[in-house]
Amino acid sequence: MANRSKPRGRPPKVAQTVTTLGPGVLTRAGIIDFALELTRSEPLQDLSMVRLSESLGVRTNAVRYHVGTRDALLSGVMNLFFRKLLEGLAPILASGMSHRDGIIAAAAASLDLKTEYPGITRYIMAEDRFRMFQIPPEGETDFGATYVDAMFRLFADAGLDPADAAELWHLIALLTTATAEHVAMHHAPSHHGEFLLRQAARFDGTAWPGLAVGIPALVRLDVRKAFDRQIRSFVESLLDEESPG
């Protein structure tokens, strides 16, 4: 199959943006923002205080002074990620579109952001901490809790009872995370089309009719369209169940 090697190193433009300011103006917000940018190319769970300080060009103690513990760093990055999810959700809620379309659009926006930051997606798949609730500094907002609250409000406004809303949340979380990981790691069948077709061609199509029709279809599969169809189908089935008559 195709080479699955993952990109390494910090994004140069981001590094320049933060480090050229100098250690005298290093801030917690700047460090957290920089750390989130690193998750474009590496998993959040692999990010240590030492790794972060080296990327910033400052002493590790300087990062610890502004951020605190590693848990505070991880939660800070996840909190910023949830803030971005909320920023994407706001125009959807304000658009006046139907609740049905709003839920589908919110799921698509979540997939887009998880695809943009694959290191967050890989963290969510590997870790339990900070996947929902955060530990923000005193006086700051827990955007994880805020996002979950906003999504469940949207589900309730659409007429879903708590059990169906929980099922929908679970499905959206699973599909967005798995699909984003699939795309980021180039696991989609279309990325390995030549290999798959070549392997399938080794088998007689008459004796192996499933392979003969299935593999070419898999190679042509549009992962994003499949995601959109699955989300829409599930949302519509739940809402139709809730509709009277």
Automatic annotation (TrEMBL):
Entry coiled-coil feature ranges:
none
Which controlled-vocabulary keywords does the entry list?
DNA-binding
**What Gene3D superfamilies would the database entry show?**
Tetracycline Repressor, domain 2
Can the keyword Transferase be found in this entry's annotation?
no
Q: Name one GO molecular function term.
A: DNA binding
Does DNA-binding appear among the keywords? yes
> Do you know which PROSITE patterns this protein is assigned to?
HTH_TETR_2
Q: Which InterPro entries match?
A: Homeodomain-like_sf (IPR009057), HTH_TetR (IPR001647), Tet_transcr_reg_TetR-rel_C_sf (IPR036271)
Question: DNA binding happens at which residues?
Answer: 48-67
Q: Please report the name of this protein according to its UniProt entry.
A: Uncharacterized protein
* Organism of origin: Chelatococcus asaccharovorans
Classification from the root reads: Bacteria, Pseudomonadati, Pseudomonadota, Alphaproteobacteria, Hyphomicrobiales
